[in-house]
Design brief:
The structure is a homodimer.
Chain A: H1 9-16, E1 24-29, E2 37-43, E3 46-52, H2 61-73, E4 91-93, E5 96-102, H3 114-130, H4 144-152, H5 160-174, E6 183-186, E7 195-198, E8 201-205, E9 212-215, H6 216-227, H7 237-250, H8 255-281, H9 295-306
Antiparallel strand pairs in A: 1-2, 2-3, 3-5, 4-5, 6-9, 7-8
């Protein structure tokens, strides 16, 4: 259960007077979500999702919330933030930065079909296209400099063979530069638990709080490493091809992107291998996250090293 | 049937490449609508409404489309325009200015209940509040100067007693000034056929192409004159009270507004009495409108003259 900050009906009703969304009927905590507190808020106008940010500060939110608004305005399936009477998307509630967004249909799918992978790929490309006109910028805080420095601090505590494998990957990635590839707004965390599906239709991408400006192909690789990965940890060829076909039906990869694709798949795996190692070896005091298994992404990276067919 | 401009699938599919809303699945003409051509457009991402503007020019659209986007962002139930790859809401299609908006649920209700009138009143007040932060402005082209000049050109052709009654009303309104009342964005045409209802919930206000900046109370009076009017042409007391109660649950009327209310109800009736007389006596060549009965609003105005209880 991920309701870290409790909000009462009276407190919420008072806060809602800054909005034009009718009278509060009920609120209900949402169990899903790892980092923030979420509630369903029902008013006389409809259902919304209330998010209280447990880590991000109020002045860090405009990039993410204006991005979601921009993408929604362009027809990308994602929650649309609701603006208040000061035309702001966020303000303090119960001492935390808080926002309201539209409530989407659909649900998470643990074991997606190839058709669902294709739909996700298509929507990701639509998101990349729609991001072209978004004016704000945010650097990726978890790029190569971050993973190299973070890995360097962990080798000494890791099993020797795992450390050698990690070091090999960091050294491999240091020989690559992706700066010549098309860049734009990336979701950067488009795992299965951040997409709502309604049958084979994408009802919405959610949780844009890792979004940033980076190489578009990196986003495709992050998505593929999760969406096409089966229960056994192996990448399923059909799902990988479907996701790429969906993506390329909207935005065909360039020659440079195709050439960079094998190493980008490994870079995308490395990023989550390192962050999971960090969560494992350096758990934050009071951190409200599930520790996820770093081995999953070690296996992804090591299998990509041995792969010869990259589904292009 | 109100499809004045035909659009083919190939032509539409080519135009849709400027959007990030997936691949065209089908399009279907919409019979409702008097002035513009509307289609349902189904894509792999969902259902949208395509409007081709038969009268408004491309450079006249930003006020209306940005207003709808602003209101939707603030949680007011209305269609949200979809932006294209140039971040524009409209461009030419089949030689006409055209836009895509989100498709709402709900349907028109010919004989609304009091609860529905209350919900409409509440949403109208929410719209007025949300309009406070909308930066663009548009004068009302059909204000007192317009109805006085228009009526003056019609008296000679009208039945003498009708002309006398119209003249009496124009003269009455010329003695009133509403400039001291709260102003803002008004829909200015919130009749039953411009609201979609889903049970007792307002699913959406539509057809914002008469919206402008004017006295807020005028919008309340326009809505009441239609929503509370029964089959017999009389205003139903319960529905009138319900609409006002819904409105005032969000934005209580000021003392000045309460004092102006009886004459404002007549002003709102006069505006449609005159426009319907104009359509009747001066039908535009090739105009694609149903001629609506001017007597309906003559009766509304004359009954308001005789009324003593204005439901406040």
């Amino acid at each position: 259960m991920s309701v870290y900050t409790s909000v009462g009906e009276a407190e919420l009703a008072a806060w809602l007077t800054r909005y034009s969304i009718g009278q509060l009927k009920s609120l209900k905590g949402i169990a899903a979500g790892i980092t923030n507190t979420n509630y369903f808020v029902d008013t006389t106008h409809g259902r919304y999702v209330l998010t209280l940010f447990e880590v991000l500060a109020l002045d860090e939110l405009p990039y993410y919330l204006e991005l979601m608004s921009h993408l929604a305005r362009h027809g990308v399936a994602c929650p649309a933030p609701i603006a208040d009477s000061t035309d702001s998307y966020a303000s303090l509630l119960a001492g935390k930065p808080a926002c309201l967004v539209t409530c989407l249909t659909g649900s998470e799918v643990g074991a997606p079909s190839s058709a669902q992978c294709q739909a996700v790929g298509e929507m990701l490309a639509a998101m990349h296209e729609a991001g072209n006109t978004f004016p704000k910028r945010m650097d990726n805080p978890r790029g190569p400099a971050w993973w190299s420095a973070t890995a360097a601090g962990l080798y000494g505590e890791m099993d020797a063979s795992d450390a050698a494998s990690l070091h090999e990957e960091v050294a491999f990635q240091e020989r690559y530069r992706f700066a010549h590839l098309p860049t734009g707004v990336v979701h950067a965390d488009l795992f299965r638990d951040n997409v709502l599906l309604d049958g084979e239709r994408v009802a919405g991408f959610i949780d844009f709080y890792y979004a940033c400006n980076d190489v578009l192909l990196y986003d495709v690789a992050i998505a593929l490493n999760d969406w096409a990965r089966g229960e056994d940890g192996n990448i399923d060829d059909d799902k990988a091809r479907a996701l790429l076909a969906g993506y390329q039906s909207v935005r065909p990869l360039t020659g440079d992107e195709r050439a960079a694709w094998p190493s980008m798949l490994r870079a995308a795996g490395l990023r989550f291998w390192v962050s999971r190692l960090l969560d494992f070896y350096r758990p934050q005091a009071g951190e409200m996250t599930y520790t996820k298994d770093p081995k999953v992404f070690q296996k992804v990276v090591e299998e990509h090293r041995a792969r010869s067919d990259f589904w292009l």
